[in-house]
Amino acid sequence: MSIVVRDVREHELDSVLALNNAAGPAILPLDAGRLRQFYENAEYFRVAERDGTIAGFMIGMGSNAEYDSSNFRWFRKHFPDFFYIDRIVVASRRRGGGVGRAFYADAQSYAELRYPQMACEVFLDQGANDPVLLFHGSFGFREVGQHVMPGNELRAAMLMKELSCHAWVRKTYGSELPEVPWTRRRVLPARPAAQAAPRPTGTTGP
Q1: Which CATH number fits domain 4-176: 3.40.630.30, 3.40.350.10, 3.10.20.30, 2.60.40.10?
Q2: Per-residue pLDDT of the chain in tens (206 residues, 90 and over written 9)
Q3: For a Cys staple, 3 with which of 53, 102, 171, 175, CB 3.0–4.6 Å?
Q4: How far is the C-alpha of 186 from the C-alpha of 30, rounded, in Å?
Q5: Using N-to-C axis directions, what is the helix angle for 32-41 and 13-21, rounded to 10°?
Q6: CA–CA separation, 115 vs 40, rounded Å?
Q7: CB of 86 within 8 A of CB of 60?
Q8: Residue 178 DSSP SS3
Q9: What distance in Å separates the CA atoms of residue 94 and residue 139, rounded to the nearest whole number?
Q10: Buried (b) or exposed (e) across 146-159, using 16+ Cβ within 10 A?
Q11: Which GO terms describe its molecular function (predicted)?
């Protein structure tokens, strides 16, 4: 069956959390509180559905997000405007079936309407990372530096991809994109007016 990429739903957060924490050392663990913060604040939080079950998820945000990840801060120090892929997780039984490529194609379709570049990182100290780097290279990412995360001393290759369509979109439409379903931003869940927006914490990898 085909892969459907869509916005996450609240009742799916437990499944997303289980997927994340079963992904192995290439993905940093999450707790329910941090995942809730992503759900309430991340502009891009989508799942891939195949055969009626969740096959993976991806979380992303723009460079103006309030996020204290050291990897995110590294990108913001070196680049003024970008879309950051915080993490992508594909269920082990679905790896190699095109879910990862479906996510990156969807994320690029979203990002190139709004940002000139797309950023992510790949950990270099987790054993066999060559297939992951090759995957990103085949999708047009290039290494623009390396960063060692404080606290756990994990080294990451910092990857960036130019989004060539962005300049044309910005010149043609400015900040007013056509009102069609595929150009819309994710609708964030409503919170009481007095409740301050929580700030995502922690650091992650793709």
Answers
A1: 3.40.630.30
A2: 688 999 999 999 999 999 999 887 778 889 999 999 999 999 999 999 988 889 899 999 999 999 989 999 999 999 999 999 999 998 867 676 789 899 999 999 999 999 999 999 998 876 556 788 998 999 999 999 999 999 888 899 999 999 999 999 999 999 899 999 889 888 898 766 555 555 554 444 44
A3: 102
A4: 22
A5: 120
A6: 21
A7: yes
A8: coil
A9: 19
A10: ebebeeeebebbbb
A11: acyltransferase activity, transferring groups other than amino-acyl groups
Distance CA 134, CA 130 (A): 6
Going from the C-alpha of 142 to that of each of 25, 119, 136, 153, 161, the distances in angstroms are 23, 10, 8, 22, 6
Judge if pTM exceeds 0.85. Answer: yes
Hey, what are 85's tokens?
């892929």
Six-digit token string for 65: 């997000």
If you search the block for the tokens 């990898």, which residue do you land on?
Answer: 205
Q: How many residues would you count in the chain? A: 206
Encoded tokens for 74: 């590294």
